Amino acid sequence: MKKYLVEFIGTFFLVLTVGMTVIDPGAGALAPLAIGSALMIMVYAGGHVSGGHYNPAVTLAVWLRGRCASADVVPYWISQIIGALAASTLTLHLKGNPIVTPQEINGGHALIAELVGTFALCYVVLNVATAKATAGNSNYGLAIGFTVMVMAFALGGISGGAFNPAVATGITFMHIENAEHYPIYLAGDLAGGMLAAFAFKFINPDDK
Fold first, then answer.
1. H helices of the chain, where?
2. CA nearest 170: which of 55, 16, 36, 21?
3. What are the tens digits of pLDDT across the range 115-173?
4. Where are the domains of the chain?
5. Which fold has domain 2-203?
6. Is pTM, for the whole model, over 0.85?
7. What is the pLDDT of residues 59-105, one digit of tens each?
8. For residue 5, which of 91, 86, 66 has the smallest C-alpha distance?
9. How many CA atoms lie within 13 A of 175 on its CB side?
């Protein structure tokens, strides 16, 4: 239960940061910096307990890589989604239940952007937080948080920059993105996580 609580807390603060910095009045162009930093500090805070996934796609990638027990996958996903919904509810309350205009996106382009951004995130997570060659490093949280920040700056204008089905749940609940686009996020993010796991295992065949 401690692992699941940590996943709830970390995802909660990640999605809370997304909502509070994106919905007006927010952080404007600096939102990706705040979001990446939120992920970084939560990874440092909870990584030693749960692995600090805070993202169903990361959980999928770590499981496929062989570093997450099968029994933990669904409870992690549930904890992450509940954390996202709780953060979204609080955000809307703190913002005064505003009218939010969803971002207009091109579905095909958004799918590619989400896949690429999530692949980058999961690939970095697997290499800095699960690989034997980088075991014991102290910069894994910084690398993970900066990856989200960079991908958000680079691809956020295309897809909204979720790279995380829990974040996608949150931004849909907060009406930052249209509900009809939710399957795009699920498909792109989970596919990105799967591809990252396969790439890691291909590049590091002896790292079991």
1. 2-22, 31-50, 56-65, 70-94, 107-129, 140-159, 165-173, 182-203
2. 16
3. 999 999 999 999 999 999 999 898 999 999 999 999 999 999 999 999 999 999 999 99
4. 2-203
5. Glycerol uptake facilitator protein (1.20.1080)
6. yes
7. 999 999 999 999 999 999 999 999 999 999 999 999 999 999 999 99
8. 86
9. 9
